[in-house]
Design brief:
elongated, Arc Repressor Mutant, subunit A, mainly alpha, single chain, 2 domains
């Protein structure tokens, strides 16, 4: 007869209570998270604190610091991965920078990966406008549509001069 007892995951409450001071459990959980994607130092600490509320925050901090020292966690890699992902999804510099600041990334780390005046932002903006206008019959962008696109692009984190340039490039006049 098969065992129908539900399986507990390796981080069940009983195993945590038994090994409350065991940092190995924290390390294993952190490595499981990092195996899936990059996390910022702050994010990884938050995730571990939510998963293991009975552990002291100092123990969690020590484990994440050890992972950073071993280069298993890196804010630089996180910024690179996150910014690449967001650029591909059509977000601008201001949006990405604000999101990274909320994740407690230092401005110096952000500046290493992102430049507000990079011409790539205009290419991204042109692509976003192209997707936004894909169903339009007219190639010309009138003033009403221009203001609509501008508001949308500002929400995406593009700067006014980037938006203007992208609209001008997208405005295919016959």
């Amino acid at each position: 007869m098969p065992n129908l007892k539900p399986r507990l995951n390796s981080y069940s409450l009983d195993s945590i209570l038994v090994s409350k001071s065991n940092e190995w459990t924290l390390r294993r959980a952190a490595l499981d998270y990092l195996a899936r994607r990059e996390y910022s130092f702050f994010e990884l600490k938050q995730k571990l604190q939510m998963k293991f509320p009975i552990f002291e925050s100092n123990a969690i901090h020590d484990v994440v610091c050890a992972l950073r020292t071993e280069n298993l966690q890196s804010d630089e890699r996180f910024v690179e991965s996150y910014s690449r992902s967001r650029k591909c999804r059509g977000f601008g510099y201001k949006h990405i920078q604000h999101s990274l600041c909320r994740k407690k990334i230092k401005q110096s780390e952000i500046d290493k990966q992102l430049a507000p005046d990079d011409p790539e932002w205009i290419e991204i903006a042109v692509n976003v406008i192209g997707k936004k206008r894909s169903g339009c019959e007219s190639d010309h962008i009138d003033m009403f549509e221009r203001s609509k696109i501008t508001r949308f692009m500002e929400g995406r984190g593009f700067m006014p001069y980037q938006i203007k340039k992208a609209i001008d490039l997208s405005n295919r006049v016959d």
